[in-house]
Amino acid sequence: MSDASINTQTSITAQAGEAGFGDFFALLKPRVMSLVVFTALVGLLAAPVPVHPFVGFVAILFIAIGGGASGALNMWWDADIDAVMRRTKGRPIPAGKVTPGEAKAFGIALSVISVVMLFLATNLLAAALLAFTIFFYVVIYTMWLKRSTPQNIVIGGAAGAFPPMIGWAAATGSISVEAVLMFCLTFMWTPPHFWALALFMRSDYDDAGVPMLTVTHGRPATRLHILVYTVLLAVMTIAAAFTGIGGPVYLAVALVLNALFLKGAVDIWRRDEVASEADNFAVERRFFKLSLLYLFLHFGAILAEAVLTRFGMGGW
Amino acid sequence: MALQPTHDLHKRRMGRNIGTALVLVAFIGIVFGLTLVKTNREGAARQAPATEASQ
Fold it and tell me: Which of A10, A11, A13, A21 to mutate to test the interface with B (most CBs of B within 10 A)?
């Protein structure tokens, strides 16, 4: 072993023992947490039962912390593949800022605290759903599906789809059709969103040996899958306009966004690798960015309908 | 003895300690706030039937 490698080893060990506050915060996947906060908030506010503002704030906070805790446990388990992928090698564990053991303890502690606090603030159903979401994301998706099946994203997407349902359950103490529809919206949106990412971050999943659809079934099959899921998503989201969470505002938003999203999916399906490489996957990148706006605006429209209903204007 | 200049490690440790302290204070505030909201609501719920009965 050379001196250089000894020095590097020493500095990483020393740094790992002295992680900053921000390093622990980064373990919570703040960007994913922002999506959890927003969708859970919409679920909570769209529910027909009013919630005390402070209880609502605490519920959203601990749903977000529960989501963050599952992110920390995901980073603990996936530290080996995160170190290989360009997109994730800057995360706190592969960067040597936090040790895997610290991340595991941090994730478990926050999971327990978030579930207990959500129960104390709201009800048993909401807390049980949060516990199940953490279990689903960490055990079912991260430990089992992610490295074993190309359908990892499809089934694992359920974990990210639970927050609006938890928000709804926190307000009402029950689950209804509207909560299931909000779950379905995120669930159906996840595969095209991540497959578009896999198309332009192509070497990452290959290098890490994660059986993404692009690796196992090829890139043309992935493009077709994106189109099929986008069509199903469009049918589902437009149909939702005529249910309890929908209304004219939601319908208008859904029609415009789905037209754009379908056009993007068709464009991706019609392209081949030569065309994609020629413009550095511009269409795939645009579709990925649009998918973020797509989800945000759909939930925004559900929220708008809920607010308008309070003033006697929303819904049909 | 001469004072050592502050090392980056000390800054990180300080940041972590302050962050943890703030999180703990916030947590105490949340538990206190929840207790107030819950007890006020339960008190109001108990008072309502008693008022109706007296009327």
Answer: A21
Give B34's contacts in chain A (Cβ within 8 Å): 54-55, 58, 120-121
Q: Which of A42, A113, A82, A98 is nearest to A304 (CA)?
A: A42
The pLDDT value recorded for residue A256 is: 98
Nearest CA in chain B to A57: B30
Q: Which residue of B has its CA nearest to A51?
A: B37
In sequence order, the 6+-apart residues with CB closer than 8 A to the CB of A167 are: A39, A40, A41, A42, A43, A44, A45, A47, A59, A60, A63
Do A239 and A251 form a contact (C-beta atoms < 8 A)?
A: no
Closest chain B residue to A114 measured between Cα atoms?
A: B27
pLDDT at residue B43 greater than cutoff 80? no
First to last CA, chain B: 80
**8 Å CB contact of B12 and A20:** yes
pLDDT of residue A262: 98
DSSP secondary structure letter of residue A176: -
Integer angstrom CA distances of residue A164 from A27, A59, A60, A249, A257: 22, 12, 10, 19, 20
pLDDT in tens, A12-45: 444 555 788 999 999 999 998 999 999 999 999 9
Cβ distance B34 to A120 less than 8 Å, yes or no, reads yes
Residues in A touching B13 (Cβ below 8 Å):
18
The radius of gyration of chain A from alpha carbons, rounded to an integer in Å, stands at: 21
Q: What is the ipTM of this complex?
A: 0.80
